[in-house]
Structures are given as structure tokens and as C-alpha cells.
Design goal:
This protein is of the alpha+beta class. Helix content is 45%, strand content 16%.
Length: 236
């Protein structure tokens, strides 16, 4: 067995033992194993990510652009682009859910990997067990003009039905950047208050945009609500 064969075997074993331990460049390495059977793919994976920024951007790049990366020839470029087309066609984001124990870095990578395909604005609530495992997802679409009230009311009803220790909120700005709007900040404060009223921990509110993700937790914006729960039902 060669050095490369041993590395590939160990990486594949890690994938099936704990997929959340695999970093983004290692996922791309794994994918490249099938296009480049007898070469080290680590350097190529890093060069692709350095140029395009993330796996979603790699898989959505044109064949011509992919071929500008050292080590990527015609067959590898066609393989990567084909994977991107297949992923978009047969595996839309709502079919996926993060599995395993919540890890901030891994979860942010997950958000980047799946929410870039969403063309409509969505509001997803992920459920956390007491041990930190993500064990469910509830999706809402944001088609109401009164988004803050829509989210607050439905979240309250959801937490009555679903017994969960904590939640992570993810929503997207399909045609914009991840910076939160005033409505996003108000919705976060009110969702925080809803969670507090139901003894549920709001772990984070993450916004996905064309520039990446914004984390309210990382930014220190998960503050205690300054108003009472009853105020949610007042019109804006």
C-alpha cells in the first residue's frame, strides 16, 4: 500500500466514523479521489478552495475556470462541474439536515454548503438536544409582509409542540449579503424572548448571504429582550 493509499483509507474511515470531523478541504479531497485515482489530491483541493472560496463555488465554477487551477485538467474539471449540476438538480437544500453534535465551524460550513442553492428566502429552526446533538429541523417560508410577527407566532407554537433544549435559527438573503437588517435584528430579539418564555436556549441566529454567513452569537448580538412577550402580537 502506498502512502497516498494509506491516507485515502484513513480519510474514508473518518468520514464514516464521524462526518462532522471532516474539514472542507478534506471533503473536496474525498471527491477528487474519484477523479484522480493515483495522485495526492490535498494540494489540488487547497488550490481550488483558495481560488473559489468554498466547495459550492468550486462545484458551480465553469469548466474553463476550473482548468485554470494547477493540477485540474479537462477530465477533473468536467467531473467537478457534473457533480455541481447533479447536486443542484437532485439534492435541493431542504432535503439535507446537519447530523451529529453541534460544532460552530462545521455548522457554518454546512450552512454555506446548502443554503447557496435556495432561491427563495427561508427560515429554518434546528432543534438541539441537551447533549448538543442536532435532531430535527422545521422550515418556514418568509412570504408574509409582517415577517417579525409571522416568525414570532409560529416559533411560539412550534416550541409548544416540540420539546427541545435549544434551537439554532438559519435564514438566508438569496439576492443579498449576510449583514442583518433592522427587521432581522428585531426578529432575533423577539425569537430570543419566545425561547426565554419557553425555557429554550436560542444558541444562534445565522444569516446566509452571497458573502458568507453572519452569526448573531459570534457578533455578541444575542442580547436579553427589552420588551415583554405579550408585545409580539401588536402590529408594526
Amino acid at each position: 500500500m502506498s502512502l497516498h493509499d494509506g491516507h485515502r483509507k484513513r480519510l474514508i474511515e473518518r468520514l464514516f466514523k464521524d462526518e462532522n470531523s471532516i474539514k472542507e478541504h478534506e471533503f473536496l479531497e474525498l471527491l477528487l479521489f474519484f477523479a484522480i485515482p493515483r495522485r495526492d489530491t490535498n494540494d489540488i483541493a487547497h488550490r481550488l478552495l483558495d481560488k473559489f472560496g468554498s466547495i459550492p463555488q468550486v462545484l458551480s465554477a465553469s469548466i474553463a475556470d476550473l482548468k485554470t487551477v494547477e493540477g485540474v485538467g479537462e477530465s477533473v474539471a468536467v467531473f467537478l462541474r457534473s457533480m455541481g449540476i447533479m447536486q443542484n438538480k437532485y439534492f435541493p437544500a431542504h432535503m439535507h439536515i446537519y447530523h451529529g453534535k453541534y460544532d460552530e465551524e462545521q455548522f457554518h460550513s454546512y450552512v454555506k454548503s446548502y443554503y447557496y442553492r435556495e432561491m427563495d428566502e427561508v427560515f429554518d429552526v434546528y432543534f438541539l438536544e441537551e447533549n448538543g446533538n442536532v435532531n430535527g429541523l422545521q422550515r418556514f417560508t418568509l412570504q408574509s409582509e409582517k415577517m417579525v410577527q409571522f416568525v414570532s407566532r409560529d416559533l411560539a407554537e412550534l416550541l409548544v409542540r416540540i420539546k427541545t433544549a435549544g434551537i439554532i435559527i438559519v435564514h438566508n438573503h438569496p439576492n443579498g449579503f449576510s449583514d442583518p437588517s433592522y427587521a432581522d435584528r428585531l426578529a432575533t430579539e423577539r425569537c430570543h424572548a419566545v425561547c426565554d418564555a419557553h425555557n429554550v436556549l436560542l444558541c444562534d441566529h445565522i444569516i446566509y448571504g452571497r458573502d458568507g454567513v453572519y452569526s448573531f452569537a459570534n457578533a455578541g448580538d444575542l442580547k436579553n429582550p427589552d420588551f415583554k412577550y405579550e408585545e409580539f402580537w401588536l402590529d408594526e
